[in-house]
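Document type: protein sequence-to-structure record

Subject area: structural biology

Format: plain text, a pair of labelled lines:
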Amino acid sequence: MNEAGKFSILVVDDEKSNILALMNILRPEYTIYAAKSGQSAIEMAEKHNPDIILLDIIMSDMDGYEVIAMLKKSEKTRDIPVIFVTGMNSAVDEEKGFALGAADYITKPFSSALVKLRVQNQIKLLEQFRANKNDMNQMTSRIEAIIGNLPGMAYSCLYDYPLFSLIFVSEGSKELIGYTPEELIGKKNMYQAMIHPDDIQDIVRKCEETLERGLLYENTNRLVMQDGTIKWVWERSRVMKWNSDGTPHSVEGYVFDITEQKQLEATEMVSRAKSAFLANMSHELRTPLNVVIGLTDLILADNNLAANVLENLQKISNAGNTLLGIVNDILDFSKIETGKLALIPAEYHIASLLNDVIALINTRLGEKPITFSLTISDDLPKRLYGDDLRIKQILNNLLSNALKYTHSGTIELSVFCTSSNEEDVWLEIEVRDTGIGISDENLKKLFVDYFQVESQVNRKIEGTGLGLSISKKLVQMMDGEISVESEYGKGSVFRVRIRQGYVDNISIGPDLAENLRKFRYTEDKRIISKKLVRPDLSYAKVLVVDDMQNNLDVASGLLGKYKMQVDCVLSGQEAVERIRFGKPVYNVVFMDHMMPGMDGIEAANAIRALDTKYARTIPIIALTANAIQGTEHLFYANGFQAFLSKPIDIMKLDSVIRKWVHHG
């Protein structure tokens, strides 16, 4: 598009009459350039960079096939859509044109209407492509900004031992090792030069044992800083690209400063320091994950995404959710270790619990040649009393584990109940798979923290190695037991037995049991989001409070789907003043927790202290990335009505909105 706001078209034909005919059809709507030879066309395309090229095939100096081949070789012109306009009307000619990268093919003689429609169609596609490219550029910029603000140093380097030439370094390098990205990229790898001499041999050995075998590299080592001081770092990396001979080509990873943690390990403060670190990690990681996952989900809801853009966004979404799962595992493990994870028993419907679990496992199955089945009896109790969230977590861990190590065959979930006494029942669970099985040696280590079965053989297995360890601890907290039987190469059977509270003698019955057995679920996030029928809340006004603009963008996008008026402020103090002023009257406030100055809890207490009916009764919903310390109770005790953790789950958000946003 030129400065006048018109799209430009280059017409190429060695017949002047054909050029004039096309110019008459396309003017004045488009800016027209004309070329009478192939060589002239290539020069003008380089000079003017037109939006579209209309190209004849039969020309004296160079035919159209040769011209398009030259255009596609040039980085400057390769993306310009080319429409052949030619008298060659055989299927073979047309196929050759499309094979060379033509966007369309018009045969002579042509009608004016046809030419206009074909050009308009390419313009629409071009506009969509540019809009999608702009969206992707913005997303990439935001992700780069998030990475740049994370603590520590992210990097990408060539695996050209012993140089490890850096090709990308995040801004955190300056704080970590005293060098800016500009001082490191394409130059001597100063990070490698700073490694303590006594640690080098161990690092080389671990690289050979992990990276060169396609495994995840994790290590703790020392750096000798420029002033001679020692800094402890924790590094994690993996091979991202391989050479044709099977050797690593490039590696990506990140490095964190753990000097303070190392210094505290020998003191009584280690437990408190670990809790503080994990709380901070929860906030620092969940906050950018909220932006990445939230904005990605908002864009995924667009029906007009190009295939390559959709694929890239789905990869971002999947990677974000994988990282979120790892963060949750680490946080749960820490809470169990420190005794801060408490069971929250309540009456629950077992059919609903099983429905959620089956939905998740069927989604993860994807295209794997695995048959999943559920075995339950018709007399399974309809309701039980216990912590259904943690039971779901145990089931998800066991089924995810079966799915990881089963490449084909079957996975069977069996659930039944047996009597314990008049007040309790035993909920008994069995997960059976036809996966790779577990050797006798590994069976002994199966529930050890961070252990993964056959990790050297199964290079693509993801996870922290905490799932089974967490499951065992949760089962023990429920006065239960977990066991496993396995035959190496044939499969495994995990059995769980946990005590649950008895509610009544009503069973799920044959109809509901059969519905659960036949359950099928293949929907992804886009379909879930689109199928979610959101109420029209155009009458409602909501206030969102967060000190990060990116988080406000995500929340506004999600709430905007309900047609509510969404106002945003960047501080707790400003939120208090909005409520004090009383105009507009908001139906609900969504409040972040960790903010500078006045945090979310202080702001909620200040609002309640205004002591007007409006300030006392307006629902305040907590939005927080701090999931380490059972913060739900903290919020409920300080004037909040509900709690949502970041990244925001659209189904939980919908439930909160339906409960708390209403007239009056």
